[in-house]
Amino acid sequence: MRDLRALTKLFVEGGVSRREFMKSAAAFGAATATLGAGGFSARAATGPLVGFSFPSFDAFRWPHDRHYFQARADELGLQYIIQGANEDVATQDTQIDAMLSQGIKVLVIIPVNVEAGKKIVERVKREANIPIISYNYVIPSPAIDYWAARDNYLVGEIQAKQALKEAKKGNWAIVSGPEGIDVARQKTEGALRVLKPYIDSGEIKIVSHQWHDNWRQESALKQIEDALTQNNNNIQAIVSNEEGLALGALQALTEQGLNGKVWLCGEDVWPEGARAIVRGDMAMSAWTDLIQMGRVAAEAALALTRGETPKTNETLDVDGHKIPGMRIQSRVVNKETLPEFLKLTDWLKPEDIGLKAG
């Protein structure tokens, strides 16, 4: 069996066909891998090899994160192996082992499961002792050397502030992700911080708040169906942690002819969410600057291979260890700001969401 890097070099140089490359790479668990071809050019031949482990590439955003990371990695001359684990912990573990066997100098990881990710990074640190970057989530282990993640509190805050500007007071609902994940807890806490004075005064009443395992859209649908039934359709606003949850809520509203009449927000600007914003069925979505997040991860990887401390704007205490990282900011995307957002990013194409190109 060919060495994966040797196989990739042959592919880049035209020594094997794409079909033969994919067939052979699959034996390494690399069928979903991206390998930095630029790393084999004369200009970048000495760049360190970085492994980036994704949970999958099925979710809408992950291919974009991959692209943003690759673009900066190519500029920096990094070589890279990027793989998706099909949302399977065992596959992620095996793929990372394969990366280690290829000599990666840094591991960037988005864990399939945060607790399983903790075990993986601690094993990698123990066995390979290479720098580890936790991406999107902060894996709760001192084995990580750096992290890049959104400011989840800020997401909740900007959603709640926008709702206060645009929605009527009265009965509100909050749709949260898994209670056991810090991302969901922090977004919810950020929103409640802003809303607390209005809740305390009685201007706003939270008539429904539920946590949803695995960010299940159908679970959010049921929550809002029940909330509408229990309150005779008298709900003024729904704040959702995430776009899929918001779309589940929107389905419940649509069933009652309330789409566009109840203020609703999501997060991450999925195509379906953007179309809902264009139609007026959803008020806004929060978008984290994933272009910056991808760039930060690539820059941090290079810095860590050089024994340098990457740029940081926050340090977290993890089991008594100070771990530097970067909190990535978010913005409001609504009908007014959507055209500008599309120009600044390659996130969506105007014609795909009901807008004219240009």
UniProtKB/TrEMBL annotation:
Extent of the signal sequence: none
SUPFAM superfamilies named among the record's database cross-references: Periplasmic binding protein-like I (SSF53822)
Ranges where the Periplasmic binding protein domain occurs: 50-308
Tree of life domain: Bacteria
Pfam families associated with the record: Peripla_BP_4 (PF13407)
Cellular compartment(s): Periplasm
Assigned keywords, A-Z: Signal
Name under which the protein is recorded: Substrate-binding domain-containing protein
Native organism taxonomy: Bacteria, Pseudomonadati, Pseudomonadota, Alphaproteobacteria, Hyphomicrobiales
